[in-house]
Amino acid sequence: MASNSKNKNSGELHDLKIKNSTVKSRLQDQANGKICKSAVDDNSFKAVGKDRMESKVATKRNVQKVKKDREEKKDKLQEVAAFSTSCLKLVPSNCQHIGARERQEDAFGFSDLSDSDYVEKNGVLAVVADGMGGLAKGDRASQVAVSVFLREYKDRRNEEPLKTHLLRTLHRSNTAVYDLAFTGGEDDELGTTLVAVAVKQGKMDWLSVGDSRIYHYSDGSLEQLNKEHIYANKLETEVKKGLISRKEANSHPERAFLTSYLGSHEISEVDYSEEPVILKPGDTIMLCSDGLTNTLSLDEIVEVFKVSPVNIAEELVKQALFKEKRHQDNITILVLSCKAVDEQKTKGDEND
């Protein structure tokens, strides 16, 4: 919008410059005797002078209008930013189901939301981990990863940037999961995915490893923020290079295999926010394990956001289970709904 406005105003100034240059050209031609005598009588001089004055006045007015428009837009942006950072409340919700599996290998957690002073100072953390099915201690791996994140966030130094804190905690969490493989004298291969978001004063940082997802719902549109670390990405690159066909890529038996996860000696891939995501009232953040996204399509998920904005997590789980998918994976969904402070107070008063 700002770009279109700028181009429009530039066009108005450009037109005025052409008018001014035309007047100057006429005066110059007159001085050089290129205009006939009948065209340079007193009335013509007066008309030229009048045109120049009107052009100057019009130019001045348009310049002032451009400046005024810019100031108004700047004020509006500042108002939105101030509203987003100082008048935003996060309402958490979640839902989890074991699916058709024998045990629950997903884990999740929120930072302490009951301490308003702590939330004001440190913000809110939400994290989901999906223990790798088929590997030993998958449930323990996800639990350990989440526990490390919650503990570290509780002890976080306020001056440490959120992104820096998340990345530092991720590597500590990876070490804890990696060490878990050697507990009890065993040498097991284990691992877990992890997605985490940290929100403070209306700004959100996030990171992810594996194939769990982070979504941002805003103004009726759902956007996946992170990239999944799966073998399908490599297959896609090979398709673009002409090394394999699209059919071969889509039917490859290992396309869903993880290429990065917590529990390895070093994390091979990490996806994280380069800049904080600015949140506003009405926005929704969702973290989920692939038990949801492997069952429901993006369109089906968006429909739930639109139809059931209050009970998003529960409704999504219901929709997934309704399909009665064979071998349904564990499903875990965390939701952070962004509300205006006044709106939240009003709802609280109504509940009282």
Give structural notes.
The protein is of the alpha+beta class. It has two domains: 2-84; 93-351, Phosphatase 2c, domain 1, CATH 3.60.40.10. The protein is built from eleven helices and eleven strands. The strands form two sheets. Strands 2, 3, 4, 5, 8 and 9 form a six-stranded antiparallel sheet that branches. It has a five-stranded antiparallel sheet with strand order 1-11-10-6-7. The relative contact order is 0.13.
Estimate the mean pLDDT confidence: 79
What is the rounded Rg? 30 Å
- Reported by name, the CATH topology of the largest domain is Phosphatase 2c, domain 1
Q: Report helical residue fraction.
A: 40-55%
Largest sheet: 6 strands, antiparallel
CATH architecture of the largest domain: 4-Layer Sandwich
Count of individual helical segments: 11
The backbone outline, from C-alpha atoms, is globular
Are there runs of 5+ residues with pLDDT below 50, and where? Answer: 1-48, 73-85
What's the β-strand tally?
11
Distance between the termini: 43 Å
Estimated share of beta-strand residues: 15-25%
State the order of secondary-structure elements, H for helix, E for strand: HHEEHEHHEEEEHHEEEHHHEH
Taken together, the total number of domains comes to 2
- What is the name of the CATH class of the largest domain? Alpha Beta
Q: CATH superfamily of the largest domain, called what?
A: PPM-type phosphatase domain
Question: Which structural class best describes the helix and strand composition?
Answer: alpha+beta
